Amino acid sequence: MSKRHWCYGVFICIAGGAAVLVLAIAIGVGVYIHQFCGTQTSNSRSALQIFQDEFKRLQEDFPEQSQNLWLRSGKMMTNHLNKSHPDEPATIILTAAQDAKHTLLCLASGLAQTYAFALNSSWLVIHGPSQAKYDDSTAKLNIDEKLSSGFESRHRAAVLNHLETLPPGSLLILYKYCDHENAAYKKVALVFTILLEDSSLEPDTPLPELEEKVRDFLWKQFIHSGTSRSHQEMDSDKLGGVWSRISHLVLPVFPVERIEAGNCPFDLE
Ligand SMILES: *[C@@H]1O[C@H](CO)[C@@H](O)[C@H](O)[C@H]1NC(C)=O
Ligand SMILES: *[C@@H]1O[C@H](CO)[C@@H](O)[C@H](O)[C@H]1NC(C)=O
């Protein structure tokens, strides 16, 4: 071999080696990108999948509910979880008559837990009656602190139990959390419960009628009750503003005997 040929040989070897190296790096990067992106999609798919599986299980814990309850709450939460950047929180009002008092909180907790579980997170409950002894602004501050510290940490869902028992003016904090565009936290679910004074609910009450019933009840509680509770903070216009932000979906809860007897499968604290 002449010196020149030898030089060509070495050159080809080096060039070939470099080409193989570049190819190997390209393949490695490709595999990495593929795996990384693949994991991303399978993660977001699984949050929905987790929700749908858990939601089926939830329905088994609460027999004898209306079809509307499961269809509509399921759809609202599925759509919400399916958006990477929802423009408002998922907001649901559950209502019941006195005969379903325990089932109401239990089911609200179940919904909150199911939503939170799909996002590998936790949920919290704020009990209206625990705030009833405070004045408007103190109760408002308490609710604000609980929700924001919850959502800033591991919580993605909250139950506000017995909305009807809150000091009227404290409801104004819901402007901050439930506004259609400016809600402080959007990838969260808020479940409100409202316990009506009726002893039981007609199973076939149409939803618009139920919504009107709940609305009238809140107005009676907060605007027309004529009790000594401070009302200077709340009037019909402001309550209308709160109502329009929280009343996307008003759904009935019916009693489950086992749960009314005190056996709720969810932790209520
Ligand atoms: C989730 O969103 C995608 C695209 O926006 C849509 O094709 C799909 O049907 C949605 N899935 C569910 C379960 O709603
Ligand atoms: C779920 O959350 C916990 C605690 O925040 C974390 O350690 C864990 O990695 C998360 N799991 C998934 C699948 O994201």
TrEMBL record:
It is found in: Endomembrane system; Nucleus envelope. Its main location: membrane. It is a single-pass membrane protein. The keyword Membrane applies. Pfam families: LAP1_C. Belongs to the TOR1AIP family. This is Torsin-1A-interacting protein 1/2 AAA+ activator domain-containing protein.
